[in-house]
Design goal:
421 residues, alpha/beta, 26% strand, binds uridine-diphosphate-2(N-acetylglucosaminyl) butyric acid
Length: 421
């Protein structure tokens, strides 16, 4: 077990790059189960969730190798169609193997994910989509058992826009017989990117990038190479690291439009951002953040995965900011920890009401989930004195060597082994 020790108060300065998007890779890796060729995926982030997906795919019999920052995935031989509890309990995104296994083999046994650090996070929409495509679904001993002959195209309408359910429906419909229409599909860049990868593999999908997808099922797919898009949440987190420390940053990132919702809020808070030659930059010297309200929403709205980090920035705002999460009702485990660092935040239903303070002060705090942990790192970087963050394994699930990137910007952050839990 490791912890971070951060000595705060340093203005971060410099240039860093953005790694590949974990949530795109987690949807795209299972797409390789749909055919028996060898796919190459570049720009895969080295984070624990990816290692979990690699282990799960290896358990299924897939050969998965790391090569020069990418993955070579060979799904020629599948020896199991079961995603066991030991993998799924570590990571909900394991459920992405359901659609491809069912579609290619007519059978999948996938553990139900169970609880989450915040909740509830049901998977009913994934299951309803599979049923619409003709699967029989039973729940037995904590497992989803899905069976079907060849899936049949259908009209799937999602009552709620869901990233994961849209991904699973796309994965399943690609090899189904006939046409599938998905309405109210998620349009997050990670799902658009999954659709683009499937098309490269020979899938016939129209409406990509819109919330109405149409998939004309094909009999088989072909091998393909693909580059994972940049991680918009890592990008937003690094921008806030520079902002909250009155630093300056040059962030190497393609597709800055993925984080328009975040960069426009940063501008509302008083920063001037520039994008030139694939570099997003600003100087936050003399910046005193204006308090800016945020309402999280589906893409292109403000991402729920940036809610905790925005809350950290707003702790130093000039008045009061209300940060409301419309995607998850209960994603505020970071709030009591931020308050231990001197923040003044009250939770009212699904909103954090953040009264700006003059300064934060270092303390011992505890990570509770991935993005909550990121917010504690950000607050620790700004706080006076020393902040210790326990249970940083949550961060390692989704940020590639975050301390190395922060050190590159001048942060005083150390990873230290600890027996404290
Ligand atoms: N929902 C249902 N039923 C379902 C599926 C979702 O009611 O069957 C609800 C959820 O409870 C939630 C809303 O729909 O209120 C949206 O959830 P969604 O399905 O879009 O989320 P997800 O696919 O489980 C992905 C990301 C999350 C991110 C959300 C929202 C991956 C692997 N995970 O989760 O990322 O918060 O979309 O954008 O792509 C993270 O990276 O820290 C993370 C949690």
């Amino acid at each position: 077990m490791d912890k971070f020790i951060i000595r705060g108060g340093i203005n971060l300065k410099g240039r860093v790059n953005v790694s590949g998007a974990k949530n795109a890779a987690l949807a795209i890796m299972p797409a390789c189960l749909l055919h028996s060729g060898v796919n190459r995926l570049e720009n895969i982030p080295e984070v624990n969730d990816i290692f979990t997906m690699m282990k799960l795919m290896t358990h299924l019999g897939v050969k998965v190798d790391y090569e020069k920052g990418g993955l070579v995935i060979d799904a020629s031989e599948i020896k199991s169609q079961e995603a066991p509890y030991e993998h799924v309990k570590k990571m909900r995104a394991s459920v992405y193997v359901l659609g491809p296994l069912l579609s290619r083999y007519g059978y999948a046994k996938v553990s139900l994910p169970g609880g989450c650090a915040w909740g509830p996070r049901p998977i009913n929409l994934h299951l309803e989509a599979m049923k619409k495509l003709g699967a029989e679904i039973d729940i037995e001993n904590g497992y989803i058992i899905a069976r079907s002959k060849r899936l049949n195209g259908a009209h799937i309408h999602f009552d709620i826009s869901s990233v994961g359910a849209t991904g699973n429906a796309l994965l399943a419909a690609t090899l189904a017989k006939g046409t599938t229409k998905i309405s109210n599909a998620a349009i997050e860049p990670e799902i658009t990117s999954l659709a683009e990868f499937l098309v490269k593999m020979g899938a016939r999908i129209t409406g990509i990038g819109t919330n109405q997808l149409e998939i004309e099922g094909v009999n088989e797919l072909k091998a393909s190479d693909f580059r994972i898009i940049p991680d918009r949440i890592e990008a937003g987190t690094l921008l806030i690291a520079a902002a909250i420390t009155n630093g300056s940053i040059e962030l190497e990132m393609e597709y800055p439009q993925y984080i328009d919702a975040v960069t426009s809020k940063l501008e509302d808070s008083g920063l001037k951002l520039l994008y030139q030659n694939n570099i997003l930059s600003f100087n936050a010297n003399n910046y005193m953040p204006q308090s800016v309200d945020v309402l999280t929403a589906i893409y292109p709205g403000f991402p729920t995965d940036m809610q905790a980090q925005w809350t950290a920035l707003m702790t130093l705002g000039n008045s009061t900011a209300t940060i409301t999460d419309s995607i998850y009702q209960d994603r505020f485990k970071h709030v009591p920890e931020l308050n231990r660092l001197g923040a003044r935040i009250e939770i009212i239903r699904n909103s954090a009401v953040v009264k700006g303070v003059k300064k934060l002060t270092g303390a011992k705090v505890m990570s509770t989930d991935l993005r909550a942990s990121a917010s504690l790192v950000l607050a620790g970087l700004a706080a006076e004195g020393e902040t210790e963050i326990l249970r940083i394994y949550h961060l390692d699930r989704g940020y590639q060597k975050i301390e190395e990137k922060l050190k590159k910007l001048g942060a005083d952050i150390q990873r230290v082994p600890t027996s404290e839990f």
